[in-house]
Amino acid sequence: MKQREAAVRSQVVDAVAPFSPWWKARLKTLGRKAADVGSLAGLSSLPAVGERDVCPDGDPAGMAALVLQGTESGFALHAEGPVLRRALASRLARPGSYRAIVEADTRPTSFVWAGLGLRYPVASTRSDLDLVARAGARLWQVLGLTRSDVVVNALPTTPTASTRALELAALGAGSPLLAPGDDVEAVAGALRLVPATALAVSASVAAQLLDDLDEAGAVLDTVRTVLLVGGAYDDERAAVREALQRVGAPECAVLAVHVPEGHRVLWGDCRESGGRTGLHTYPDLEVVQLVDPETGEGATGSGPLEVVVTQLGFRGSALLRWRTGDLATGIDETPCPSCGRTVPRVTGLRPGALVLPLDLRTGLRQVDLRGVSAALVGRADLVDWRIVIGRSARDDSDEVLVHVVPADDADPAEVAVAVARDVRAAAGMLPTQVVVAEDGELPAEGAHLGQRVLSRQ
Q1: Residue 345, beta-bridge partner list
Q2: Residues 141-158: what's their mean pLDDT?
């Protein structure tokens, strides 16, 4: 616990607060000093933030303000002790080497694409990539993989945190990895070239890809592990297991791995549990917490809660209490009953549940339900409200319906107009309809995404 407290203090006080333009301004606006939030308790009191908080106008260029703007003079404030001592010794003998060490720790050199409602680059320094690779080597142990395993990565070739983390994990563990992309023929060709023992594939298309590979005559006899990238819902796991039965590989382990949006390290199921005990995390590299999905504040009430992540030791894009859009039922810090590892595990994960791809009448949109909620929470002109996601009976398009109960002294028509306007400002889209209701008439049925956010899809 002392080491974790020290890591939080180092990240907040010595790195993020002085060198991130956005966080420097944010703390000033909140009237908080870095020392106030530079502990586990202080961190928990910091309001969680997400994409729309950093980029309220929807322009992803605003994400650059999260990147630490380190300098040679500031390097000494946040560099780890051994790195700093090596740099100072090098400065005396070889000034050019000192600058190289400083830039490895402070200069962004690598970028991946991320985002739910927005699409933005996440920056990493050389030292960040080292952290991801070391975390990946540990993930390999959790997954029950070794350096003798050969991985075929069937993810799209777009540079994302998941593809980068898989590549670095294989590198850190010493495993060969081929990345042919997600084209069926290309993946089948890669499986003919190497005796692959692990296949990494997007969870949402894994079952279909296995059937397609079998039809294409791909060699699947040697595969003993299927990695479902992006997390996996129960129905996706079941579909993959059924597909493995069809292709003649029923003994394959089906394990989920997941990088929360904006983050850079892969969480994973332990092989012993087969996905029953939650995704294993890294207490020395991150603080994982849960918040109310509607307000972004402390975890209260029943139902699934939103996962927020604070990075420790990362020097590129710096995330504190970052709202991932993922829902989870809990964070279990007891030893894993399957493998015995004593790391926090995220249980009941529902990846990306709060930012849904919807086929609205105006076209395909990524709708951030957190932004819609933000426009409704705490309004003086409302007594209560609900957000309902469903399909139109008229044309089968998706709908975002906002049901509101106006306060007694508020004009219902004015409330409806104000709600629509504020939802557009906060979420970047107009609701399909604002429905004015009486107290006690609000919808209650549907799969809950939050206390007041319902889905009938």
Answers
A1: 280, 332
A2: 96
